[in-house]
Hints:
By secondary structure, the protein is of the alpha/beta class. The protein folds into two domains: about 5-50 and about 295-390, Aspartate Aminotransferase, domain 1 (Alpha-Beta Complex); about 65-290, Type I PLP-dependent aspartate aminotransferase-like (Major domain) (Aspartate Aminotransferase, domain 2). The chain is built from 14 helices and twelve strands. It has helices at about 5-15, 15-30, 50-60, 75-90, 105-115, 130-140, 155-160, 185-195, 225, 260-270, 280-290, 295-310, 335-345, 370-390, and strands spanning about 35-40, 100, 120-125, 140-145, 165-175, 205, 230-235, 250, 325-330, 345-350, 350, 360-365. Strands 2-8-7-6-5-3-4 form a seven-stranded mixed β-sheet, sandwiched between helices. Strands 9-12-11 form a three-stranded antiparallel β-sheet. Helix 8 (about 185-195) links the parallel strand 5 and strand 6 (about 205). The termini are far apart. The model has no long low-confidence stretch (mean pLDDT about 95). The structure holds pyridoxal-5'-phosphate.
Amino acid sequence: MSVANTIKEQLERASWIRRMFEEGIRMKAERGPENVYDFTLGNPEVEPPPAVLGALDRVVAERRPHGYMPNAGFPAVRERVAYKLSEATGLPYTADHILMTVGSAGAINTFLKAILDPGDEVIVPMPCFSEYQFYVTNHAGKMVTVETTREFDLDVEGIAHAITPRTRAIILNSPHNPTGVIYPASTLARLSKLIESLDHPVTVISDEPYRTLIYDGARMPETAALVSRSVVCNSWSKSAALAGERIGYLAISPRIPEWNELRNACTFTNRILGFINAPAIWQWVIAEAFDITVDVGAYQEKRDLLCAGLAASGYQVRKPQATFYVFVPTPIEDDIRFIGLLAREGVLAVPGAGFGRRGYMRLSLTAPKDVVVRSIPAFARVMETVRARRAM
Length: 392
Ligand SMILES: Cc1ncc(COP(=O)(O)O)c(C=O)c1O
């Protein structure tokens, strides 16, 4: 067999979304697409905002350069990103602290490759975006998991206990996939204190691709401002619905004493991972449309409709503050079995097992509004089935 055993094992573990995707195709063919309610994919269903497409048209019309460039990206674009981050955080970012990357995933991999030796440890609060385990093992690291609190806030004491001399980084994701939680400033400040008290450097990798998808006027505390040893990984995949264009950045905090050494290492790892540089055209586009975001109100409306419908059917649902996911406790602990019951009614969801938290399901608000509305009776029927079985 030519496929590496590691990849074979990872493929097996990574198969939840793929399985649900294939199930969706089979169900749509069998029942008709109008009878399938697909809540699985975290792929923006909307067009990028007109201002982003307008910037794209201008960049193409102006015939901006297409060739190789410094591996960190165009200096003028990095300057623009640095300016915007300084404005948001009050930190003295310059173009030298910024690398343009192939999405947030590219930024995380570039950084992990730069800091990990084989066997080094990376702490990940659970539940989590399931790709992290593969990113860490890509670079011969070991992922160490720490459960979050009941409200899915960070357990800073738990993290303190998990730190060993081999710990190199902690991956934070706020706003959080799948829970929709934004970590409070007070938690981030406590984490920073903990890191500052250690006798070896541990860096927070702050993965923030959902940072603009925030509801009810909530505010996103700036991790870079609150955690002295942090790097920010961000992208326009969700905020501007550009997931397929693969454009993001890595911002190394000017407060990290050896930031320049890290920057040189990341410029090299961005190259040797085969990214070489982030897509040229999209670097220019986002420099012009840095703050442009999709209509968050449309996600908020779907969130409210779905949460109200689920609550009325007896689900213990808590409205997410951010992201386009709703993470709901399943009425039976066996989330995989529950997902099977939902599928019988035409509803597709990802089980909490896919994020390392049994007894939950993740529903994506990228499903169209009419699907959200039409799905509610199906959710209600499954709840009825569970209650009827309990009563027996
Ligand atoms: C938490 C989290 N991080 C990173 C990514 C990857 O984002 P990007 O498209 O910017 O690489 C995703 C995508 O779903 C995500 O949910």
